[in-house]
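Bug report

Summary: structure tokens for Cytochrome P450 differ between web form and batch submission.
Environment: batch mode, default settings.
Steps: 1) Submit the sequence below via batch. 2) Compare with the web form result.

Sequence submitted:
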Amino acid sequence: MANDIFQFFDTPFVIFILLIFFVVIICCYWLKKQKNEDADKIPGPCSIPIFGTRWIFYFGCYKINKFHEFYDDAYKRYGPIMREYFFNIPMYSIFERADIEKVMKAPSKYPVRPPTAAIVAYRYSRPDRYSSAGVVNEQGEKWHNLRLSLTSELTSPKTIANFHAEVKNLARDWCREIKSAKCHSGAVDNIANLLLPLCIETSCALILGRRLGFMCPEKLPMKFQKLGEAIKNYFICLRDTQHASPLWKYFGSASYRKMMKCEDQIYDTVLNIINESNGENNIGTVYSSIINSNIDEKEKIAAIIDFIMAGIQTLKNSLIFLLYLVAKNSSVQRKIIENPGYAKACMKESFRLLPTATPLARILEQDMKLAGYQIKSGSVVLCHNGIACRNEENFDFPLSFIPERWLGENVHKTSTIGTFIVIPFGSGKRICPGKRFIELVLPIFLKKIVTNFKIVTDDVLDLQHEFLLSAKEPLSMFFHDR
Ligand code: HEM
């Protein structure tokens, strides 16, 4: 047998094939080196075959839920640009204002934000439910058509103005919820448990144009009750598939299977909610504009799901961060009550310090010089706007919560510096269509809460990467009646 093998390798044909194979490998390696000569000099963690630089997360240097700390440290260690390999794909992280501005301002007909692979894979595997990956994850002309057909009502100032009274009702009802949930000392043990129903109710009210009762769990139909948990788990599964080896695409994985289950649960619940509206189609609501748009029926359901989903966790995290900062800086609470515009300044400052959706990613459409290195078009670039916002080169006392930056004579300087870094909703054509709505909601909620309660917390915020930047639960707060 061994003899046969030696005889086989002895044949000139096999030797010739092996020779060609090695020549091809050497040429590929040489070409790759030539092509990326500049990019190869970019500092970054050591890359190993197959895993690239992901070993950092596998061998215990950083936990996956402390992803943000890895990038904080990377900036200190490597400077304005860092190269990493997501398995074999190079990715570049940029941390400084000028470079972030360059990427965000790059002219593009259809800007490309790298899609969330697990959502795309799942939606394309379910043609019975989806006819695209949806506006959040589609690209090119398809994205453009979805964006045009679906977001005009959502971004219209008229829709937002019509929603003003409902936001006040939501804030009032939530204060009632706090009153009944807090104990004698005023403590609420896990603020997230109270905020999640508010955020689901707010998102559904905006998109569907009606209240569903998520803030009265005892009256909420059983079929809706699992929505909050499904959404939370969904985001965690997205994080886990995003960081895992791409082999899940071929063989599946526990987190991908769980993500599919969550997406199905969310889909079924939202479909139920839509069906329960019994054909109610209030003109002027986001819901009616989607239902009446000239797109495939499946796209309409997907859009309603995407819009409801996009708003819940982002709003919850942003509201927790805002309440936390205000609770820790109790002197601002009186100013919120007394000065019009102060609540909005608190919101902006909170977005500067703790944006939930960061880093912002783009795929370059042309070669670009970043931090002195030439980066090829087609490269994935992560813009760490949050880190740039906490850099003293951009803001004085960058780690302090100072809403006054956004008021009076300071506002011009802060806004100019912040144009391309204080971008919690992204920037350019792919900017979040929910921005206007959230900017209406947050100051109203904040003002109502601090008018009713003096809020205090002894806890220290522990940030967690759960696809979005989130607060580790439980985070307790005291709500003392005013
Ligand atoms: C505090 C709340 C929110 C934050 C911080 C937030 C943040 C973001 C960010 C950073 C992006 C990516 C933008 C970019 O790549 O330039 C985005 C995209 C998006 N957001 Fe939001 N968002 C929030 C709420 C909402 C709400 C309420 C909705 C819908 C009602 C929504 C719908 C979307 C959609 C559809 C996209 C994809 C846009 C596209 O690719 O064209 N978001 N959001």
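Above is the batch result. After comparison, the two runs are identical; trailing whitespace caused the diff. The chain has one domain: 54-481. The pocket of protoporphyrin IX containing FE is lined by residues 113, 135-136, 147, 154, 206, 306-307, 310-311, 314-315, 318, 356-357, 360, 424-427, 430-434, 437-438 (CB under 6 Å).
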